[in-house]
């Protein structure tokens, strides 16, 4: 239950930062101004070797309210297979908030909800698994232009259900 209250406090902090920064916006923006502030990005991941393959496609979009605050969403699709042992399909989405106190530093909060479908093909009596896996990441990174390199931490990490090997996850984020 303590995690829940921590997450609520963090959301409240980001909401306060968002409202403080968004108050500088002009309420009379037209459609062109809106689309000029939308950035698209995401990631593509491939991993393979010794009978293992993993592929991820994760597009995302953010709206930059100003040089400091952006909010957006993303989709995630991942397929994993290990020959004669395991296959998984992971589909889901995320909401992301970005805050840059200075141009070179980017702080982030991201809530991710993934549907995991694991299928085992071995004779080890492992059960197939289908479940939802939530993650709530807090991150910090160094930003240079359209690229941010950093580290994020999953506050909801569960070593038995998380699709990630560790609560700490490095990231590279691109938005154009």
Descriptive report:
- The chain has helices at 2-22, 31-36; strands spanning 38-49, 52-64, 69-82, 86-99, 105-120, 129-144, 147-154, 168-174.
- The chain has one domain (2-174): Porin.
- The chain has 176 residues and is α+β, with helices and mostly antiparallel strands.
- The longest helix is centred in the first third of the chain and has 21 residues, at 2-22.
- The model is unreliable at 21-28 (pLDDT under 50).
- A hairpin with an 8-residue loop joins strand 5 (105-120) and strand 6 (129-144).
- The protein has an 8-stranded antiparallel β-sheet with strand order 1-2-3-4-5-6-7-8.
- Helices cover 15% and strands 57% of the residues.
Main traits of this protein?
2 helices; alpha+beta; 176 residues; Porin; elongated; 8-stranded antiparallel beta sheet
Summarize the structure.
The protein is α+β, with helices and mostly antiparallel strands.
Largest sheet: 8 strands, antiparallel
Judging by the overall fold, what is the CATH architecture? Answer: Beta Barrel
Separation of termini? 39 Å
Helix-strand pattern: HHEEEEEEEE
Total count of strands? 8
CATH-defined fold name: Porin
- Spatial shape: elongated
Uncertain regions: pLDDT < 50 for 5+ in a row? 21-28
Helicity level: 10-25%
Number of helices: 2
Our Rg estimate from Cα atoms comes to 18 Å
Number of domains: 1
Proportion in β-strands: over 45%
The computed structural class is: alpha+beta
């Amino acid at each position: 239950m303590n995690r829940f209250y921590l997450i609520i406090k963090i959301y409240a902090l980001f909401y306060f930062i968002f409202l403080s920064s968004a108050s500088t916006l002009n309420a009379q923006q037209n459609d062109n101004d809106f689309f000029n502030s939308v950035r698209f990005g995401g990631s593509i991941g491939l991993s393979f070797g010794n009978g293992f393959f993993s592929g991820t496609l994760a597009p995302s979009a953010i709206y930059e309210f100003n040089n400091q605050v952006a909010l957006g969403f993303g989709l995630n699709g991942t397929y994993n297979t290990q020959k004669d042992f395991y296959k998984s399909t992971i589909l889901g989405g995320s909401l992301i908030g970005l805050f840059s106190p200075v141009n070179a530093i980017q702080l982030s909060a991201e809530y991710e909800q993934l549907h995991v479908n694991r299928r085992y093909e071995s004779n080890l009596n492992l059960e197939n698994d289908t479940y939802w896996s939530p993650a709530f990441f807090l991150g910090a990174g160094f930003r240079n232009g359209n690229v941010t390199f950093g580290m994020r931490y999953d506050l909801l990490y569960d070593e038995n259900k998380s699709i990630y090997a560790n609560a700490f996850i490095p990231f590279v984020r691109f938005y154009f």
